[in-house]
Amino acid sequence: MQGYDGGSSDSECESPTLDEQECQSRLMPDFWLIVKIHQDRVKVYSHSRCFTEEKDVSAEEFEKKEEEQELPEYLQLHQTVVRKIGEICRIVNQRMLLQDLHDSHVCNSLLVAESEEDIWKNESLYRQRLNTSDDYNTEESYQARDYLAATMQFIPGHFACDVVWSTIIHIHPRLKMGPNMGVSRAIQALRSVLNSFCVVNRKNMFVYQERTTKSVFYLRLCETSLTGKYSDMDGNLPMTRSIGLFRSQEPLFSEDIMGSKSSLEGSRPVGQVDKHILLLVHGVGNAGPEITDELVKVLRKRLDETTLDIITVMLVRNCKLTPADVEFIQPSGSPATEVMTFSLPQYCLPWLSAVAHYLRQNLLIFLHVPKYTDSNTAHHFKHYFHLSSDLADGNIYLYNKPGGQGTGGK
Question: Which InterPro entries match (predicted)?
Answer without folding.
Answer: SZT2 (IPR033228)
